[in-house]
Design a protein that fits this description.
Order of helices and strands: HEEHEEEHEEEEEEEEE
Domain Expansin-like EG45: 44-158
Domain Expansin-like CBD: 168-247
Shape: elongated
Organism: Salix purpurea
Radius of gyration: 21 Å
Strand order of the largest sheet: 13-12-9-10-11-8-7-14
Keywords: Cell wall, Cell wall biogenesis/degradation, Membrane, Secreted, Signal
Membrane topology: Peripheral membrane protein
Amino acid sequence: MGTLKAILLYFILYQTWKIAADEEEWKSATATYVKETSGSIIVEGACGYGDLHRATYGKYSAGLSSMLFNRGSTCGVCFEVRCVDHILWCLQGSPSVILTATDFCSPNYGLSSEYGGWCNFPKEHFEMSEAAFAEIAEKKADIVPVQHRRVKCDRRGGLRFTVSGNFHFYQVLISNVGLDGEVIAVKVKGSRTAWIPMARNWGQNWQSNINLVGQPLSFEVTTSSRRTLTSYNVAPANWQFGQIFEGKQF
């Protein structure tokens, strides 16, 4: 009986530790919004996702200041954001939204970081869509204080691989990444090659100078939590540049 109690206690403590480890502490930042008739911030951006509605991120997208953007490695990461400490602008109860990092909010050192230069280093700032901002604060506000924390990304479907380039330059955009969302390494394999490490070009675009035309393609993706997922033969031998293929999901 003593052994059984010890096992149960260990299991409870482990689950408590695991939940605590999965949830980050809240951190302070600020947020503004960009008016867009489509409901999303932009249709292009520093992460390379293109049309954010097609990329499934839609209105729940955000541009990040350089402190958060981390030169593009944060692209695809999910943040929970809530408005705090402003009785006039924050909605009652401080509701939160889950945002995906899809763009870079450029600094403006010609303006004070307290007014206009909100994305100046080292400030942490979120540039949200108007629709998402309205879920946490009054739209009359120019800027609101927020708290944020990284959370797991809940995605529908598998990882998406958008192929571009030419016979001498092969590039793949990786999107719809679940769990931590942050891709830190990618490998590609043709039917006539070994696994080839790819280099980050910009955002979540990864490149290789190997000619892979005419070969079925497999991908190995590693996230910041050191989890690796392999999707075999995602693209058939007759794949074309500009096509999108779907693999497994974390």
